């Protein structure tokens, strides 16, 4: 049956592969100009048309109704009444078909190579999209997604997740992962049971196979939800499986947003480790930090001396110091005066 479907769609695509000009004409009729560079794309979702736009850098415009700063999606006020594109899922059949990158000035034939694998790990095309906010289609009234600055595109589940929320929300269980491997744990996350290098096997009985996007599952956990996680952990050269229990909370940083682990404490910090916002309501030691202070080191390690992204290094230093000592010791410079302060992420 699958082969018959594939043959049908491939034949359909072949018949029309020579000319997508009608699809471009349809795009011009329903897309809405946002600024000099971008058009917003109308998509049909739950009986209504929504105009959406993607930007990796923050935008300011009176046409914006709301946006998700984690992933750069914007909802734009409609200025015309049209029926939007129907979103199609990227399945194995879709990867066999010829598709077109369609926009006001572009009509490029290509092929889908890979589905979207994460919030910033976009679907990939054989020929990269030349600019964001173009559509990927092989049938004029339906699209597989909208393109990004990186040349890939955002797919149906991620667009519909954005449209389904009144305000952006992402679940958190106190870890940063690569695939199903825990890379870092958040020392400020209450009752965090994880350790670095834990291998996540199940989340709420969902098996963490390649087909299961761990990042997606965690992000969709409800705030306050009790979550059971089965992990594989190495202890003294032995590998054990262990079921952990953790309460999901809202995520404060990550994806396109800065992620230092301090965001949940409402502490602002820049790439030079200068405090941009303090929080004197805390009672864990961080209340001693004030705007203008500069962190010189944590547990005698300066994240600025390490290679790579400064915020990734800061998370790593915070985690390693907490796991080793149970607290964090900061050396801080305030207007030339240096002082030590101890921080107890989970209280004394």
TrEMBL record:
UniProt cross-references to InterPro entries, sorted A to Z: DUF7488, PDZ
Name of one Pfam family that matches: DUF7488
PDZ domain: residues covered: 182-241
Start and end residues of each DUF7488 domain: 16-166
UniProt feature coiled coil, ranges: none
Protein name per the record: Periplasmic protein
The organism of origin for this protein: Helicobacter mustelae (strain ATCC 43772 / CCUG 25715 / CIP 103759 / LMG 18044 / NCTC 12198 / R85-136P)
């Amino acid at each position: 049956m699958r082969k018959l479907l594939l043959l049908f769609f491939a034949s359909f695509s072949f018949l029309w592969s020579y000319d997508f000009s009608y699809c471009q004409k349809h795009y011009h009729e329903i897309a809405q100009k946002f600024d000099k560079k971008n058009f917003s794309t109308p998509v049909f979702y739950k009986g209504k048309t929504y105009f959406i736009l993607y930007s990796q850098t923050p935008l300011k415009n009176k046409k914006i109704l709301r946006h998700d700063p984690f992933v750069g999606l914007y909802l734009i006020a409609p200025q015309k009444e049209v029926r939007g594109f129907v979103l199609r899922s990227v399945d194995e059949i879709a990867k066999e078909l010829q598709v077109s990158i369609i926009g006001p000035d572009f009509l490029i034939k290509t092929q889908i190579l890979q589905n979207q694998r994460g919030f910033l790990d976009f679907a990939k095309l054989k020929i990269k999209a030349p600019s964001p906010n173009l559509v990927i289609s092989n049938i004029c009234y339906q699209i597989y997604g909208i393109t990004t600055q990186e040349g890939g595109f955002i797919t149906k589940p991620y667009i519909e997740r954005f449209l389904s929320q009144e305000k952006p929300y992402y679940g958190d269980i106190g870890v940063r992962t690569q695939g199903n491997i825990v890379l870092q744990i958040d020392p400020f996350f209450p009752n965090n049971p994880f350790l670095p290098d834990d291998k996540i096997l199940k989340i709420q009985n969902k098996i963490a196979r390649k087909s299961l996007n761990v990042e997606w599952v965690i992000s969709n956990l409800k705030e306050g939800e009790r979550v059971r996680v089965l992990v594989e952990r190495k202890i003294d050269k032995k590998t054990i499986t262990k079921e952990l229990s953790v309460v999901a909370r809202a995520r404060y940083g990550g994806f396109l947003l800065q992620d230092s682990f301090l965001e949940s404490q409402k502490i602002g910090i820049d790439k030079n480790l200068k405090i941009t916002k303090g929080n004197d309501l805390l009672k864990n030691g961080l209340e001693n930090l004030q705007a203008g202070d500069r962190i010189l080191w944590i547990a005698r390690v300066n994240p600025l001396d390490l290679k790579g992204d400064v915020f990734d290094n800061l998370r790593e230093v915070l985690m390693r110091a907490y796991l080793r000592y149970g607290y964090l010791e900061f050396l801080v410079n305030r207007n030339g005066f240096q002082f030590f302060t101890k921080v107890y992420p989970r209280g004394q």
